[in-house]
Design brief:
Layout lengths: L2 E4 L2 E6 L8 H14 L8 E6 L2 E2 L20 E4 L2 E6 L2 E4 L9 E5 L10 E4 L3 E4 L9 E4 L7 E2 L5 E3 L7 E5 L5 E5 L7 E7 L5 E8 L2 E11 L5 E4 L3 E4 L2 E9 L4 E8 L6 E6 L4 E3 L6 E5 L8 E4 L4 E5 L2 E6 L3 E4 L3
Parallel strand pairs: 2-3
Antiparallel strand pairs: 1-2, 3-4, 5-6, 5-29, 6-7, 8-9, 9-10, 10-11, 12-13, 13-14, 14-15, 16-17, 17-18, 18-19, 18-20, 21-22, 22-23, 23-24, 25-26, 26-27, 27-28
Length: about 325
């Protein structure tokens, strides 16, 4: 009831607390409201009201960060080391460095801070070599979840059995323990940070019940992540689940099973909307996306690599494992 739409204008009633925000913050509120309501048919503008008074912002509204376009070739693990997979050809990186058993690498976004990382086995997170730098150990833990790198260069992971926190690391080793009390005693299947770095996608299991959820990322004034907000469930149809990734601003992809089907499939979940189940892929263990759901890539436990092709999948590689794209 706090939002009404008339003649193309949405009127949103806000509390008096917003008046304490400065002009820049109020401008961000208005553009975020407009973006949140943009799917409303024939919506042209948004008015924010405190009581009967309209909140007015001088000048143009700011531009919001958009979903970045990702055009890079996937990084894979082949012959025991990280390699670029381009047009069916493999190009080694600088090597595995400290990782004797490199797995599930993660890449920073183009023109953004960060450093390629990988798990070494299941219990160490390491940076990959860069020039004469052989890398460093960022974290040690028990059965770590595949890492995710946000646009500020923080690498996120957590032990699969959660103690109510997740961990974030800078390439120089600085770390932050991120409070997520709602995860305590859960088994975390996947953790991925959205491309705008404001939301965390978490797939978890509690007492045999699997859910995919999204939670806000809270940061301090220096940009250090400090906590995850209360989660919003976006998919409850999963029976089992594994990896997950962001596809765009409103869509995530989750590997798992649902209904009576026992073969793993990609579930395309629209936040606040329907879920579409794509054709199943036997032995699927890893899913990543470039730009949009047509860019989906799936890796399997036997080293097969599949790319989205129309309504199905095309086999594009073999003996390559753990494909990854920035994020």
């Amino acid at each position: 009831d706090s939002v009404t739409v008339s003649e193309g204008t949405a009127r949103v009633s806000l509390s008096a607390e917003v008046l304490s925000a400065d002009e820049d913050q109020q401008a961000l509120m208005l553009i975020q409201l407009l973006e949140s309501l943009r799917t409303v048919p024939a919506l042209v503008s948004v008015q924010a009201l405190v009581g009967d008074t309209q909140m007015v912002v001088e000048g143009e509204l700011p531009d919001l960060l958009r979903n970045p376009y990702i055009s890079a070739s996937p990084l894979v693990i082949a012959d025991g080391q990280p390699q670029r997979f381009t047009g069916g050809e493999l190009t080694p990186l600088m090597g595995a460095g400290l990782a004797a058993d490199p797995r599930v690498p993660a890449l920073p976004y183009d023109d953004a801070p960060g450093r390629p990382v990988a798990l070494d086995g299941t219990d160490r997170l390491v940076t990959l070599p860069d020039g004469n730098d052989t890398g460093m150990v960022l974290a040690e833990g028990t059965d770590l979840v595949a890492p995710s790198i946000d646009r500020f260069g923080w690498t996120w992971t957590t032990p699969r059995v959660s103690d109510g926190t997740v961990q974030a690391y800078q390439p120089n080793g600085a770390s932050s323990s991120v409070t997520a009390s709602w995860l305590e005693d859960a088994t975390v299947r996947a953790l991925r940070i959205s491309r705008d770095a404001t939301r965390a996608l978490v797939v978890r299991e509690n007492d045999g019940v699997v859910q995919a959820e999204v939670a806000a990322v809270m940061r301090d004034p220096d940009g250090r992540p400090v906590s995850l907000g209360d989660p919003v469930v976006i998919c409850e149809m999963l029976v089992t689940a594994g990896d997950a990734t962001w596809v765009d601003e409103q869509t995530v992809a989750v590997l798992g099973t649902s209904g009576a089907d026992t073969t793993t499939a990609v579930h395309l979940v629209t936040i606040g909307g329907p879920t579409t189940v794509l054709p199943a892929i036997e032995g699927a263990t890893r899913v990543v996306a470039g730009t949009g759901d047509r860019s989906l890539i799936v890796g399997t436990e036997d080293g097969s690599l599949y790319e989205r092709n129309g309504l199905g999948w095309t086999l594009t590689g073999s003996d390559v494992y753990d494909p990854t794209l920035p994020g």
